[in-house]
Amino acid sequence: MQKFFLLLLLTSIWRVALAAEVQVELRTVEDQAMPNAVIYLTAKQSLPSSAPQTIAIMDQINRQFSPHVLAVQKDTQVRFPNSDSIKHHVYSFSAAKRFELQLYKGLNANPLLFNTSGVVELGCNIHDWMLGYVIVLDTPYFAKTDGAGKVSFTLPEGEYRLNIWHPRIAQSPESLEYAVSIRESNNLSYRLDKPLLVDLNQYEAVPADVNDYE
């Protein structure tokens, strides 16, 4: 009996250790590739995990947040350098992270710890059009789709919850959650049900003025 349970345990460990290749494709309701969407998978089974070791970067370039969407694992530190020659005043009132970095420029802003899952919407008190997002995820398995609307993962076999997020997606987050069973090689394809929302990040640069607080 002990040998049976030992064999069962070893088999379970072996199955978890198996790596699977997963490709996910996302397309719009018009059947166009959907780039820069965050795809993340959360394991239903218990998997070994470790705290993030790197510091993520949300820069400010040409009076825009760069990248527009930054995905990080929970407990990641994020630095907000200002690569512009003008000052910015970054803030967020989001429940997942409330903070304020008062007028500054350069690369010296201290990193902030993002330790609550959720979407953090960023703004600038000086430049109202500046809009960015940090999505904080309680899983190490996440990435943004490329120009072809695709993303690939290598992760242990098992049962997962797959979620899709982008600020221009009009569907509710609940409608973009899927139960998936990952075994060996998987090709998953999804298509949105509604047209994308207006792109609020469009901005044509104008000459600096006194409101830029140089």
Question: How would you describe what is shown here?
Answer:
Strands 6-12-11-8-9 form a 5-stranded mixed beta sheet, with no helix packed on it. Helices cover 7% and strands 45% of the residues. It has a single domain (18-47, 54-197), classed as Immunoglobulin-like (Sandwich), CATH 2.60.40. The protein is mainly beta and 214 residues long.
Number of helices: 1
- The end-to-end distance, rounded to whole angstroms, is 75 Å
Superfamily (CATH H level) name: Cupredoxins -  blue copper proteins
Helix content range of the residues, please? Answer: under 10%
Strands, helices and their partners?
Layout lengths: L1 H16 L1 E9 L10 E6 L11 E3 L1 E3 L2 E3 L2 E5 L2 E4 L8 E7 L2 E8 L7 E3 L3 E7 L6 E7 L3 E4 L5 E7 L1 E8 L11 E6 L2 E7 L23
Parallel strand pairs: 1-17, 3-7, 6-12
Antiparallel strand pairs: 1-14, 2-13, 2-15, 4-5, 7-10, 8-9, 8-11, 11-12, 15-16
Features:
214 residues; disordered N terminus; 5-stranded mixed beta sheet; 1 helix; globular; mainly beta
Describe the structure concisely for a colleague:
This protein is mainly beta and 214 residues long. It has a single domain, classed as Cupredoxins -  blue copper proteins (Immunoglobulin-like). 7% of the residues lie in helices and 45% in strands.
